[in-house]
Design goal:
The protein is mainly beta. The chain is built from two helices and twelve strands.
Length: about 160
């Protein structure tokens, strides 16, 4: 049992965000393309527009989630990705962070299922937010779904679009 726990701890602690030779972190790379295939997902939620950084608030009892960068779309990869977490009256519970992404599939006219990229962003995460100075995103339209809670268990969720060239 101890050996299994040690192995599990090692696997969880491994940083999963790969890097290119120029130091850019690969958030959504060519190898992730297969994750987005075969979609029967519904269309983009109301309030999310092509070429916009307009965000959609889903739930806001917990920390405030704000997209700081990028603000102008489309972005050129690598780009800066900065998301802030502002606690209300209880500290952010960092292990509750979940980052999921879905991609717009031109040939279907709809969105792929969500792909969980939380492990990829953990290396760039602190209680104040996510800050990745050089983040690679393959060309396409994406919808990020961020969920986090505070230490009192109050949850916040926010959607924001990213379009990369």
């Amino acid at each position: 049992m101890r050996r299994n726990l040690a192995f599990l701890t090692f696997i969880v602690a491994l940083p999963c965000l790969t890097a290119r030779e120029d130091g850019a972190a690969v958030l959504i790379g060519k190898d992730d393309a297969a994750c987005f295939l075969g979609s029967s997902a519904p269309p983009c939620p109301a309030g999310v527009e092509r070429g916009s950084s307009k965000t959609t608030l889903l739930h806001s009892d917990g920390p405030v989630i704000d997209l700081m960068e990028p603000l102008i779309m489309p972005v050129t990869s690598p780009t800066r990705l900065v998301i802030s977490f502002t606690p209300k009256d209880s500290p952010v519970q960092l292990d509750s962070l979940r980052v999921r992404v879905k991609k717009f599939l031109k040939w279907t006219g709809g969105w792929s299922p969500y792909v969980d990229v939380t492990k990829k962003v953990r290396l760039y995460t602190s209680e104040s937010g996510v800050s990745c100075q050089k983040c690679e995103v393959e060309p396409g339209r994406y919808l990020f779904h961020i969920t986090i809670q505070d230490r009192n268990g109050r949850v916040s969720e926010k959607l924001f679009p990213v379009e990369a060239q």
